[in-house]
Structure formats: structure tokens, C-alpha cells
Design goal:
Number of helices: 6
Helix content: 40-55%
Strand order of the largest sheet: 5-4-6-7
Radius of gyration: 16 Å
Shape: globular
Protein name: Hydantoin racemase
InterPro entries: Iso_Racemase_Enz_sf
């Protein structure tokens, strides 16, 4: 049995934590369990500013510090906040594999702040040459739990990303249920792919 410890990048209420936990349980491969905890009141309520990103990084790192007894520590965020030194977060695991498979990669995110940080992280991981940018969906935080609304906005962005040459598009929020599409770029659910890939390479 593989055990994964995860922490939200923002402070969420009990209902949202339960929703995210159910999603992990549904996506976890056989033989994998995921324990998801809230980042706590020191974490921001959403990622909307640079200060939010910094607070998220600090809060997640504080929770992960000293956590032992798990096979992986995987922050519940595609921006990889607070990943312990020497380990890989969700985005790095996923983008490493996509680039290795020959994809030209793009992403969609809820807002520009998240878009800029995601692009910065991809470049930091050494994949800037294979990254074609981010389409910003301009959605509020409530859309994260609204599958239909998020996926409708994402579908409208896919044609533009495909026109740039993207063959794989990372959904830039780990808490969204991704609807697969027919034709066009591969739409990547970072949680599903990261869970699968971590187990495969372990």
C-alpha cells in the first residue's frame, strides 16, 4: 500500500476539504491512499495576489515539515507550493512526463496570478522551450467546485491553445473535475496523472 500525504494550498472549510478528499479517493490507483489536510488559518483563502502565493508557500511548507511515514508528500496544488527539497510536486511530475513524451504543453488557469506562477515553475523545471503559455479563464473561486462552468470555459480556450501548437493542456487547478474532450489537445488532469505517475516510477 502506497501512502500519500497532501495539503491544500488555501484554507478551506470542512465541506470543501471533504469534496477534495473524495476526488482523491476516486482518482487514486489501486493500492494508493491519500490523506488530505487543510493548510490552516495562516494560509490564504484563495490565490489572487503575489502575497497569497507567498503565504500559501509558507503555510504548506509548515504543514509538510516533519511529516513522516508516507511514501510521498504532494501538495494539493498545480503550483507545487512548499514541496520539500529533493522531492517533486504535482506540476513537475506531470510536465516532466508530457515533455518526455514529446508534447508541446500549455495550460489553463483561473486567473493571471496563477498563470504567471505556473509558467515560472515550468521554466524553473527546465521545460520553457516546450511550453506554449497559459490561457486565463477569468473565473472566480466558486468555479473551482462548479464542474460544468469550469469545463465550459476551458473548452472555449482549447482551440486557441491548439492553434499555438499545443498537444497537451494542463488543467491549472488540482481541485477541478476535468471533462475529457474529443479531438484537440490532450486535456491533463494533474491530480489523476500525478497519482498514477508517482506510483509507476516508485
Amino acid at each position: 500500500m502506497r501512502r500519500i500525504f497532501s495539503v491544500t494550498p488555501i484554507h478551506v472549510d470542512a465541506d470543501e476539504l471533504a469534496r477534495r478528499s473524495r476526488r482523491y479517493n476516486e482518482l487514486a490507483p489501486d493500492g494508493v491512499t491519500v490523506e488530505l489536510v487543510d493548510a490552516g488559518p495562516d494560509a490564504p483563502s484563495q490565490l489572487a495576489t503575489e502575497a497569497d502565493l507567498q503565504a500559501s508557500e509558507k503555510a504548506v511548507a509548515a504543514v509538510l515539515d516533519g511529516i513522516e511515514g508516507y511514501d510521498f508528500r504532494l501538495p494539493d496544488c498545480v503550483l507545487d507550493p512548499g514541496v520539500p527539497a529533493g522531492e517533486r510536486g504535482m506540476l513537475q511530475v506531470v510536465v516532466d512526463k508530457l515533455v518526455a513524451d514529446g508534447h508541446k504543453v500549455a495550460a489553463v488557469t483561473r486567473n493571471q496570478v496563477i498563470a504567471d506562477e505556473l509558467a515560472r515553475k515550468v521554466a524553473e523545471y527546465g521545460h520553457g522551450a516546450s511550453f506554449l503559455g497559459v490561457a486565463v479563464l477569468d473565473l472566480d473561486l466558486a468555479a473551482v467546485a462548479d464542474t460544468a462552468r469550469w469545463n465550459e470555459a476551458m473548452r472555449s480556450a482549447l482551440d486557441g491553445l491548439a492553434a499555438r501548437g499545443a498537444t497537451a493542456v494542463i488543467n491549472g487547478c488540482s481541485a477541478v473535475e476535468v471533462e475529457r474532450t474529443e479531438g484537440g489537445p490532450l486535456v491533463v488532469d494533474p491530480v489523476a496523472d500525478a497519482l498514477r505517475l508517482l506510483v509507476e516510477v516508485a
